[in-house]
Amino acid sequence: MIKIRNIEQINTPALLLDIDAVNRNIKKMADFFRGKECKLRPHCKTHKLPIIAKKQIDAGAIGITCATILEAEVMQDAGIESILIANQIVNSEKIEKLVQLCRAGEVMVCVDNIYNIRDLDRAAGKASIKIPVLIEIDVGLERCGVAPSQPALDMVKQVSECKNLPFLGITGYEGGMFLKDVVEKKQKCSMANKLLVETKELIENAGFKVGIVSAGGSNTYDLAGLYPGITEIQPGSYVTMDRHNREFGLDFEQAIFVLTTVISTPQECRFVIDAGKKAISVDEGMPGCIDEGMELFKLNEEHGHIRIKNPQVKISIKDKLLLIPRHGCTTIPLYDKYHVVSDNKFIGHEEIRARGH
Prior knowledge:
Layout: E1 14-18, H1 19-33, E2 39-40, H2 50-58, E3 64-66, H3 69-77, E4 82-85, H4 92-104, E5 106-111, H5 114-127, E6 133-136, H6 150-160, E7 167-171, H7 182-205, E8 212-215, H8 221-224, E9 232-233, H9 243-247, E10 256-267, E11 270-273, E12 288-289, E13 294-299, E14 304-308, E15 320-324, H10 328-331, E16 337-342, E17 345-351
Parallel strand pairs: 1-16, 2-9, 3-4, 4-5, 5-6, 6-7, 7-8, 8-9
Antiparallel strand pairs: 1-10, 10-11, 10-15, 11-14, 12-15, 13-14, 16-17
Helix pairs in contact: 3-4, 4-5
């Protein structure tokens, strides 16, 4: 069971945000990077909330990372002054939006092909602005990015021929490195960061300044963040946490939960809740119950099935309980708002501003 004092005010299923845990997570990550050469540029793709982004910056972050142009727009409208879009912006409508954002503040974007580079340069020239770019390097994730070493240098040379695209640096995401063997994880992360830093050195030896070398995520913050030559990292999930990250060693507080209500008790050892796949994601596996005496073992679209493992656990119709998302990044966008909790009390709603963006 849970102990939120005014829980009757919350209709379910609902996404709860423990703002006290959020604040402690922000402080813990900021404290880790305080005084270090590598700086913190947290990713907002998980929490999607400008007030959390502002808290991160107030705690010492140098700016915010976004996944999409519309996330960047929401963050800039809220007053965030330095934004990295860690993605490629390629269609004309999005490029026009990028031009508008660059007029209003510092917005950097990633590139990994000459066609996009030319489109961005033309759009920036037409608008008489500059669009700062980072070359994205594929360091092993096999997602976006140009190959390390000479192909990356060739792309820097192509950017240097553009009048309107200042080259600021390079970025390469090694992936979540979801490995339980800490030695293997450290080795693989080091190999990815080595490719990135060696590429940076090759580019500089060719006469180009590389001001930014960006890498890392929540699950590698203490590896990428300490690797010599990495200048900033982009962790996102640590602020709210989930079961998946905790299983692989990320030690921050759980700050998001899905609140649900018992709607049926068809068997003594099994009951049904009002939260299914439309209320909590399963892409990384099944969510968990905060009460270890229960196990969520099946989800339909609107129903969840929980078995009672501890005979001393007693459940009644209308009881409310908390689920822990397995993957916060894909659970949060299922909701329009957070139900914010502080000191075990529901204190109000917060619209998830960048949701749907």
